[in-house]
Prior knowledge:
By secondary structure, the protein is an alpha+beta fold. The chain contains three helices and three strands.
Amino acid sequence: MMKIKEGYRLRKVGNNSIVVAVGGINFTGLITVNETGTFIWKMLEKGAEPDEVVNALAKECDVKPSDIQGEVYEFLQKLKGEGLVE
């Protein structure tokens, strides 16, 4: 299970969302996510497995899971690399 670490939230700014740290976390970066990234983030807030994210997004976008799996996993790895998921 992957889940967004406690203390990070998404805030809507125009057509995008940005990741903000709350509760005294020392986070100086700025991460902007588009509509797809927001969809993935919200699934991770619920503790979704990577394959669940792929399948739900594929259904939402009316594409085959195999067509988006690589990109979704790459995004998840970026979140992990930034220390935003556990």
